[in-house]
């Protein structure tokens, strides 16, 4: 239990990550355990359910009428940063990302809050302010929520949007000949592990916090006028895990070029120090039979491609011509945009890292 003294400590003096065992999307239940649990649930069949559990997509999509779909998702996690306001921003950006990964805009959101009544309530106020400001930036109405008492703080959003059925992006519709664009740098889970471990690299930490706080709204908007074939966002299951969902859903192979991966500078040093989150090993162990890593791939990149990301970028499959246009638009607006691979006919492995 938390000590009553935390009721008297100012928000700026509390280190939120001290109250967590795991941080951000690394707090997810491992993909293997999750798959085992879900395997016992009855499959849902409904002619209006456009996207359900079958392809592990980012949102559920339900057709209300021929020209309108309802899109719904939720996400919440433990603190990845110590500042309450920033934690609220990161958690909200991560929750809103699922809608952007479906090619849609969030319309309504509800807070999901776990918080100890032994902590100063001003800390929670700052968390909620951060989430509210990020929702406002997204043009999304934050209209309530639900709270429970919990010694380990957690925060996120339940998010709803609408779109035309023909404009929904799925993760299962990539095509042979597509190339893959990634819109944020990798290594977030490793850096967050370093933060929790007390490492000192404030410039890198600030860069990662800015990335986690950035809405994928802007990457999604850069796709306007382009023909996106498939998309997802890269979060807790890592680059290979979410690329695998796209490859399996499309029944194709995705080849990832390790030389083109955008990785935060400084991540290699942390990997060499052993600061790799447990979630990365869980991710690797669960999908190891579906992923082939070339022998010439550096050992630190081998860890990065399984690293659980918090509020990571969009992973977008589209033609090479459109991909080049997208990367140009992203760079012109100051965003990350790298062509990291291509889609091929199904081979022996769904994912090949070269």
UniProtKB/TrEMBL annotation:
GO terms for biological process: selenocysteine biosynthetic process. Transmembrane segments: none annotated. Its cofactor is Mg(2+). Binds 1 Mg(2+) ion per monomer. Residues 57-162 form the PurM-like N-terminal domain. One of its GO terms (cellular component) is cytoplasm. The active site is at residue 25. Its EC number is 2.7.9.3. Residues 175-352 form the PurM-like C-terminal domain. InterPro entries: PurM-like_C_dom, PurM-like_C_sf, PurM-like_N, PurM-like_N_sf, SelD_I, SPS/SelD. Mg(2+) binds at residues 58, 98, 233. It catalyses: hydrogenselenide + ATP + H2O = selenophosphate + AMP + phosphate + 2 H(+). It holds the Pfam family AIRS_C. It comes from the Bacteria. The record marks 28 as: Important for catalytic activity. It is an enzyme of class 2 (transferase). ATP binds at residues 28, 55-57, 75, 98, 145-147. GO terms for molecular function: ATP binding; magnesium ion binding; selenide, water dikinase activity. Keywords: ATP-binding, Kinase, Magnesium, Metal-binding, Nucleotide-binding, Selenium, Transferase. Synthesizes selenophosphate from selenide and ATP. Homodimer. Belongs to the selenophosphate synthase 1 family. Class I subfamily. This is Selenide, water dikinase. The gene is selD.
């Amino acid at each position: 239990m938390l000590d009553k003294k935390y009721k008297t400590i100012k928000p700026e003096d509390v280190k939120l990550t001290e109250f967590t065992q795991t941080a951000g999307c690394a707090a997810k239940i491992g993909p293997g355990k999750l798959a085992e649990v879900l395997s016992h649930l009855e499959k849902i069949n409904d002619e209006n359910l456009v996207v359900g559990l079958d392809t592990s997509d980012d949102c559920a999509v339900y057709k209300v009428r021929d020209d309108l779909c309802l899109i719904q998702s939720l996400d919440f996690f433990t603190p990845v940063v110590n500042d309450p306001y920033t934690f609220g921003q990161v958690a909200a950006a991560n929750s809103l990302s699922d809608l952007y990964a479906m090619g849609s805009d969030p319309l309504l959101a509800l807070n999901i809050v776990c918080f100890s009544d032994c902590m100063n309530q001003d800390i929670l106020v700052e968390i909620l302010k951060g989430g509210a400001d990020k929702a406002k930036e997204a043009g999304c109405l934050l209209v309530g929520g639900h709270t429970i008492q919990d010694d380990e703080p957690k925060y996120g959003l339940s998010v709803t949007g609408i779109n035309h059925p023909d404009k929904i992006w799925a993760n299962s519709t990539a095509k042979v000949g597509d190339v893959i664009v990634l819109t944020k740098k990798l290594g977030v889970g490793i850096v967050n592990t370093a933060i929790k471990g007390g490492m000192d690299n404030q410039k890198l930490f600030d860069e990662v916090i800015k990335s986690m706080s950035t809405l994928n709204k802007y990457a999604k908007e850069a796709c306007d006028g382009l023909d996106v074939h498939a998309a997802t966002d890269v979060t807790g299951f890592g680059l290979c895990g979410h690329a695998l969902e796209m490859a399996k859903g499309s029944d194709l192979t995705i080849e990832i070029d390790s030389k083109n991966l955008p990785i935060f500078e400084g991540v290699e040093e942390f990997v060499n120090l052993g600061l790799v989150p447990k979630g990365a090993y869980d991710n690797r162990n669960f999908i190891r039979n579906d992923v082939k890593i070339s022998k010439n791939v550096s050992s630190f990149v081998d860890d990065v491609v399984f690293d659980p990301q918090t509020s990571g970028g969009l992973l977008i499959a589209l033609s090479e011509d459109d991909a080049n246009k997208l990367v140009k638009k992203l760079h012109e607006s100051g965003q990350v945009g790298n062509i990291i691979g291509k889609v091929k006919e199904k081979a022996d492995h769904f994912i090949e890292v070269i």
